[in-house]
Amino acid sequence: MKAWLIALLALPLSLMAEQRVVSIGGDVTEIIYALDAQQSLVARDSTSLQPAVATKLPDVGYMRQLNAEGILAMKPTLVIASELAKPSIALQQVEQAGVKVVTVTGEPSLNAIHRKIATIASTLNREEQGKALEAKMDSQLSGVSDKPLPVKVLYILNHSGMKAMAAGTDTAADGAIRSAGLQNAMGNIPHYQALTQEGIVASAPQLVVIGEDGLKAMGNEDKIWQLPGLALTPAGKNHNLLVVDEMSLLGFGLQTPGAISRLRNAAEAVAQ
Predict the structure, then answer these.
(1) Helix axes 111-123, 127-141, angle to 10 degrees
(2) Which among 29, 178, 213, 264 is most buried, taking Cβ atoms within 10 Å?
(3) Which residues of 183-201 are buried (b: 16+ CB within 10 A; e: fewer)?
């Protein structure tokens, strides 16, 4: 075989080997691994915790508090980032430095998972693997019921150093609740709002959902029922609580269909 032909056939592999990718967003990183394209990864952000091996990569910081210097220090040729990454000026500076930046949808919906896979697969020349992964997702999504179920869910966001907040509309939590066919107890307020006794009692949630890290930051389950007004709600009276992996439920990545199924199952148990 002629030398030029051998070189031509080897070109895609050599290009992949030379690619230095920084992934920003837990959903983005998880998909890169699922596409078996992790060989090109040189760094990730702090929300990229799955698969566990990803945590061995250098961390460029929290996706909502990025700085261009930290990213450029990894000498990337490509940055694949969730559109939720902030501040946007940091990524603009990375792009101005000559690094290609590809943005992945951050829409909080199950349908968006397909678009995420397609974008990342195309960017990394993994189209066939992308199609296989989308087919796998279709199989998982087929088991997620979105048939309306009149159960009111309160999602509590609680991170260290901040007051507990309720998830209203235009949040990933609202998207997850609605994807499960359930009602957001705080669907009459926008974004995340501080918990108030009046608001919690009026919303009358039947099921409370909180992330594992949020529960740890709060201390224990008893502290949850001590939040303003919560003991007076149906959820509080019956101690209906679901503790979830926050990234799995709210990240709208590969683990989200399973997390939403667990949310649905918990709500169905409450409805019985």
Answers:
(1) 170
(2) 29
(3) bbbbbebeebeebeeebbb
pLDDT in tens, 113-168: 999 999 999 999 999 999 999 999 999 988 888 899 999 999 999 876 678 899 99
3-state secondary structure of 104: strand
Termini Cα distance of the chain: 70
Q: Which of 248, 33, 63, 246 is nearest to 140 (CA)?
A: 248
CB atoms within 10 A of CB 245: 17
Task: Tell me the DSSP string of 167-232.
Answer: E-BSSHHHHHHHHTT-EETTTTSBSEEE--HHHHHHH--SEEEEEHHHHHHH-SHHHHTTSTTGGG
Distance CA 169, CA 187 (A): 6
What would the pLDDT profile of 3-28 be if each residue is shown by its tens digit? Answer: 444 444 444 444 445 899 999 999 99
H/E segment holding residue 113: helix 111-123
267 and 149 in contact (C-beta within 8 Å)?
yes
Please provide the DSSP assignment of 4-71 as one string: HHHHHHHHHHHHHHH--EEEESHHHHHHHHHTT-GGGEEEE-TT--SSGGGGGS-B---TTS--HHHH
